[in-house]
Amino acid sequence: MLIIDWKPDKTLRKPLYKQIVIYIKERISLGEWSVGTKLPTQRELAKVFEVNRSTVIEALEELKSEGLIEGKRSGGTVIINNTWSLLAANPPPNWQHYINSGIHKPNQPTIRMINQLEFKKEIIRLGTGELSPELYPKDLMKKVLLKISDQMDSLGYEEPRGSFHLRKTISTYMEKFGIITSPASVLVVSGSLQALQLISIGMLNPGSTILVEKPSYLKSLYIFQSTGMRLKGISMDHHGIKVNELKNLERNRNNLLYTIPSFHNPTSITMPYERRCEILKVCDKYRIPIIEDDVYRELWLDEPPPVPFKAMDKNGTVLYMGSVSKSLAPGLRIGWLIGPEPVIERLGDIKMQTDYGSSSLSQRALSEFISSGLYEKYLRDLREKLTSRRQLALSILEQYYSDIGEWKKPRGGFYIWLKLKRPISMEKLFSLASADGILINPGNIYDFSNNQNIRISYSYASLIDLRDGLKRLAQIIRKCDNN
């Protein structure tokens, strides 16, 4: 998907179509738009350039006459040459061929659009799963960075499993959740997403089945599918995964369960202790390994969630994922994986082959943040602020959505799983909302089939934007419902 951040200047005497021709030729000649690249549709180009469609058609016709682009019946308009290739005897490499041949699948179109729109300053982000810049602990982080700067003699590579000091700090911190582990069984990763990537290439055979909640955050990613795995959804009730459905699965030694039991993404469901015990018992019986994604654990608002699966694990069944991407700052790019030592050693070796270790600076900063007690102090303050944000979002939903949607009060995390009462086109809703400067995460990107849900996040937008965005979104939903 091409990113276009330019518009013709309507104050210039040069015709608009000529400006567009020059712009596209520059992108092609610089190699930014390579041979084989598909251009956006005429309608999309007219919208992004803020011109009439006839102006775009005139520009494209000139580019066609120069032999730079070609219209294909089913493939749209494609770049077929660049300026130099028209003069050369041999055609340039078709990079699109190589792109299409890569094993890693591209993101879903909606997610790619979300990833682009999130960086537009004027857009209100109602679905973003991270903390607002307003919640960043600037003073505390400054204190931490000043302290470690006095202690650093270098910023060299760390051990394959990560900084020993950070791993020791994490193993001590995990004791508060009932997880008893040694630093040797902890792997520092660049966020939980990297942990999943390492597992997919280092532990699983192609054709393995990843069992996930339905809906699931993992459904919005192609991490496992790109390495030849397949996802199978397991239904949920208000307590999480349905145990009977897990029991009745066709037995396969390549099955593996991925779950977010605490403040689930996207539904915010928290699995009670009894359900966790049942699921662990089934997985132990049928030898189904569990990947426990626990990145939202510290974001409880009413009461702490039950102990993790890992705290109850007596057979080495569970790989436990933690991170500060949700609770502190995604830009630190630090998470951790806890599991049997041979597994950690294997994945640590693969990590060294792929990136030679996570940021030394981030590891030192996080170690100091946690061991100094500042992290827990910060979390207490953060929970108060998130509780206020949750209450604001719930009050607005009650005022403007009671006739068009239904939801449950989340006990923690970032999300309200809003279900619309009447079916509408979620693609149309996403498009209309985006055009109005509101970015949402439609529920179908997390599910195995279309649904009528929206993941509302109260963690990112400013309080003013949260209030304004939710009000305007309600109007857009009604507009879709009436059409």
Descriptive notes:
There is one protein chain. The protein folds into three domains: 16-102, Winged helix-like DNA-binding domain superfamily/Winged helix DNA-binding domain (Arc Repressor Mutant, subunit A, Orthogonal Bundle), CATH 1.10.10.10; 112-135 and 377-482, Aspartate Aminotransferase, domain 1; 138-373, Type I PLP-dependent aspartate aminotransferase-like (Major domain) (Aspartate Aminotransferase, domain 2). The protein has 483 residues and is of the alpha/beta class. It is globular, with a radius of gyration of 25 Å. It contains 16 helices and 16 strands. The strands form four sheets. An eight-stranded mixed β-sheet has the order 4-11-10-9-8-5-6-7, sandwiched between helices. The chain has helices at 16-29, 42-49, 53-65, 95-101, 109-117, 138-151, 164-174, 192-202, 243-247, 273-286, 309-312, 341-354, 360-371, 374-400, 426-435, 463-482; strands at residues 69-72, 76-79, 124-125, 186-189, 209-214, 230-237, 240-241, 255-259, 290-293, 318-323, 335-338, 405-406, 415-420, 438-439, 441-442, 453-457.
